[in-house]
Amino acid sequence: MMLQKTMLYSILFLKCPQCRQGEFLEAHPYKFSKMNSVRERCPKCNLKYSIEPSFYTGSMYVSYGVGIAFAVAAYMILLILGFADSPLRIFIIIVITLAVFFPYIGAISKAIWAHFFFKYDPVKAQEVKNDSRTSQ
Ligand SMILES: [Zn+2]
């Protein structure tokens, strides 16, 4: 599928930055016991996800921007639906939106952070795609 080759797909669906096929996190972002813990290596291409200790601390800067994007999106939806008439209501809706999406915001922030440092490798992606042993 063509969509699977885009960086956006890889970030939104939390895939490996190098092959864009392997899972990036140990579990679903909403599984709170393992919340947003990044795997040691890509299960498909064996890329080491963490190049140094506390590598993903920097993703907090990214999560700030992602959080703003979610807040703006929530406000836009209120505007379109015509419910943006009271500042208190806007504030409450934005807080609820951030609370609901907070695990996913953290997860895609880590994925974006990883995509800054690891390049997509089409050769490796083709290799793991053709290797049936690594298919999930
Ligand atoms: Zn991979």
TrEMBL record:
It comes from the Bacteria. Keywords: Membrane, Transmembrane, Transmembrane helix. The keyword Transmembrane helix applies. The chain crosses the membrane at residues 61-83, 90-113. The keyword Transmembrane applies. This is DUF983 domain-containing protein. It comes from Nonlabens dokdonensis (strain DSM 17205 / KCTC 12402 / DSW-6) (Donghaeana dokdonensis). The lineage of its organism: Bacteria, Pseudomonadati, Bacteroidota, Flavobacteriia, Flavobacteriales.
